[in-house]
Amino acid sequence: MSKAPIARAKMQRITAEISAIDKRFAKVISESPLCTIGSSVSPETNFQSLVSSVISQQLAVKAAETIHGRLNQLAKGQITPVRVAKLSDAALREIGVSGAKAKTIQGLAQAALTGSVPIENLHELSDDEVFAGLTSLWGIGPWTVDMFMMFQLHRLDIWPTGDLGVRRGWESIHKLTDQIEPKALDLKGEKFRPYRSVVAWYCWRHLDNLKQDKLKQAKPK
The CATH number of 8-38+159-218 is which of 3.30.70.100, 1.10.1670.40, 3.20.20.150, 3.10.310.10? Predict the structure, then answer.
């Protein structure tokens, strides 16, 4: 499988198909930019992308960027498995990486170096193989792998029902009065195969649109 960019025309066809399947998404899609999943090649290697994802977990964007910048300096300008493996836990803790995240990052480096998980060749594996390989590593959970497959590997049929934003977006789009559980949303997503990543993206985008609308309404006239 390739990590090549997804053509704009193809994404337009995908969004048209989603709109035909569920009219509520048709409105969201018409009010939003075209989905950007796979619109360009990631500037990061697979290893770098996973490290970035681990660092950003449960942190504000600015804090994550600061720590990532420090790690880049510590690795002498290039975050690679070889250079990361040489860093001590103490050095990682010193730049703001938690003990748990340091263990996860070091585990990723060792997996890449030993080949126990073919980090830079994950694009050649199926979704299930990528998921099984990465979640076998300490500290790498389903959400991290889902985001990696969507935004690094450009996989179009990932359905991250464990993501709160996807669930809240779905609820709002469908005007649900009760919160939907991940298992229930799993079933709802079946009709969107093989483009569930794009549906998830528009769930997030819908929430962004609502925030923007509230900001506009709050501005003094």
Answer: 1.10.1670.40
Cα–Cα distance, 78 to 54 (Å, whole number): 17
Residue 54 has pLDDT above 70, yes or no: yes
Q: What would the two tokens of residue 42 be?
A: 């990631």
* Residues contacting 29, CB < 8 A, separation 6+: 15, 18, 19, 202
- Closest of 218, 151, 184, 205 to residue 30, by C-alpha: 205
Confidence of residue 217 (pLDDT cuts 50, 70, 90): confident
The rounded mean pLDDT for the chain is: 95
CATH number for the domain whose boundaries are 46-151: 1.10.340.30
Are 39 and 5 in contact, with CB atoms under 8 Å apart? yes
What are 90's two structure tokens?
A: 């103490």
Q: Is-contact 11 39, C-beta < 8 A?
A: yes
pTM of the model: 0.92
Q: Which amino acid is at 129?
A: E
Q: Judge contact between 207 and 169, C-beta under 8 A.
A: yes
